[in-house]
Amino acid sequence: MAYPTVSAPYGLDPINRIDGLPYAGAFRQIPVAAGFATAIFNGDTVQIDSTGYLILSTTTNSGNIVGVVMGGQYVNSSGQTVQAQYLPASISTSTNLAYAYVIDDPMALFRVAVVSSGTTMSSAGRTVVGSNLALVLNAGSTTTGNSAYAVTLTGAGTTATIPVRVIDVVPESATAADTYTELLVKINTHQYNNTTGV
């Protein structure tokens, strides 16, 4: 069976750890800042702010990231606890905190799509392995609950503050010789590895 065509970005998708151990579904429940006014989708990158609560990471080529969201839970207007693919905007309150399920392992590897900008698909060759890449923060889908984050080759290089490091290409996504639409990355600027703290 052929690898499906990658027609649009889908966020960061956990694959395994950099040491080769399989991703076993482990995550940490981290409370979302009360009144946080932006939806957080499955595959979005997030950070812990100075209050100790989770917010969406709005950094593209700098800043620290604590992990990637894989859904969450919140209390809806009927007082029911809902487990969902994404967390709607402004759902977390001081009395009913929402919790995101975050893959916060600094050694986790993620599959991600390459775009030229926005959601326009692009590709990369093996020469990008080892480079640091910027994120492209597209809005997620409230229908599927999935992110549309991606990476771009624009600005790729050695700058230490760029948020993701390319570990490998995804061979199955090749559309021609040395032309890949997906990459394996790890978080380069992980908050747990930041010695200065928040």
Molecular structure report:
The chain contains no helices and 15 strands. It is an all-beta fold. The protein has two domains: 13-20 and 106-193, no CATH class; 28-103, no CATH class. Strands 2, 3, 4, 5, 6 and 7 form a six-stranded antiparallel sheet that branches. It has a five-stranded mixed barrel with strand order 8-11-10-12-15. It is globular and about 55 Å long. The mean pLDDT is 94.
Tell me the number of strands: 15
Number of domains: 2
Q: Tell me, rounded to a whole number, the average pLDDT.
A: 94
For the sheet with most strands, the description reads:
6 strands, antiparallel
> Per DSSP, what share of the residues sits in E-state strands of 2 or more residues?
35-45%
Task: Break the fold down into its secondary structure elements and pairings.
Layout: E1 13-17, E2 28-31, E3 45-48, E4 54-56, E5 67-75, E6 81-84, E7 99-103, E8 108-117, E9 120-121, E10 132-136, E11 150-157, E12 164-169, E13 174-176, E14 179-180, E15 182-187
Parallel strand pairs: 8-11
Antiparallel strand pairs: 1-8, 2-7, 3-4, 3-5, 5-6, 5-7, 8-9, 8-15, 10-11, 10-12, 12-15, 13-14
Structure summary:
This protein has 198 residues and is mainly β.
Q: Which features does this protein show?
A:
15 strands, 198 residues, 6-stranded antiparallel beta sheet, 5-stranded mixed beta barrel, mainly beta
